[in-house]
Design goal:
360 residues; alpha/beta; Quinone Oxidoreductase, Chain A, domain 1; Rossmann fold; seven-stranded mixed beta sheet; six-stranded parallel beta sheet; 14 helices; globular
Amino acid sequence: MKALVFHGPGTSAWEDVPDPAVQDAADAVVRVEAVTICGTDLHILKGDVPEVRPGTVLGHEAVGEVVEVGGAVHDVRPGDRVLVSCITACGRCRFCREAAYGQCRGGGGWILGHLIDGTQAEYVRVPHADLSTYPLPGAVDVKDAVLLADIFPTAYEVGVLNGRVAPGDTVAVVGAGPIGLATIATAGFFTPERIIAVDLAPARLDAAKNLGADAVALAGDEAEQLVADLTQDLGADVVIEAVGVPESFELCTRIVRPGGHVANIGVHGKPATLHLEDLWIKDVTITTGLVDTRSTPTLLRMMAAGRLPASSMVTHTFLLDDMEEAYDVFSRAADTGALKVVLGGPRHDAVTVRASRQER
């Protein structure tokens, strides 16, 4: 099969690799119908995630059809169309029992495209398949559903829920890329008084308005002044970092109010300064986190009901074989206007695929 293989910082290729196969009784093999590229994948290519070893197939988000399962898989079977979660859950360890699946110690957590081969391929092996895939409602389009593999649960759980957004709050979202936009959309569930979007790109600020932002500002002094003006110099109740660079994190700590909350979502590849000389007296809470995907069933239901605005975030679509072009477009978002790119399309006859695998 073809897959996008990481060969070290700055180097990757869409190339032939062996087909995945069931290695454990809890595994499933999924034929990929739709996959997307995450900002975290760009961090990997920059060398910001050294745990990813050369030779690893990248990607941790997909929708597809189950073609093979191990003997211990009970909830999905060949022919089922499923959402492949970015987080794998064993279901038995201490953290999984607390629904903290991102911290799984039983062979799960964020492993796809990180510690094992991922989803940017024609097929992917999914460990712990019963707890790491979700049946796809017929009412949900695959191009929309793939956004529930990572960005919407991440935005909702690590940003909105961790930040404890409440009715009447002023919420500032620093970074209006895909994660920031998903944060704006899901923060609206809690009817804040206002949502302020901050970014360097005017096009992304326009997208933020379309998804529910009440006010927008360019990052820097303009953002600080806008937050001050709208809150009578108090600061935002909740500030959500959705970029992953020192400047954006430090901006968040400057615009949060005393007693407020900074929820960091961004993947940081460099140290950020924590100005405790200013923050110690402000009673500020700072949270970080990896998504657990415990909210995925809820978000799936909301998407099926038409209450999750995902379609407008998909700006570019490609065939799987266009993976390298898709990476180029996504990595140059400032020039291309890319928000989310989705790759996929009919590539195989599913009955033939299943039959050929069963003959092995």
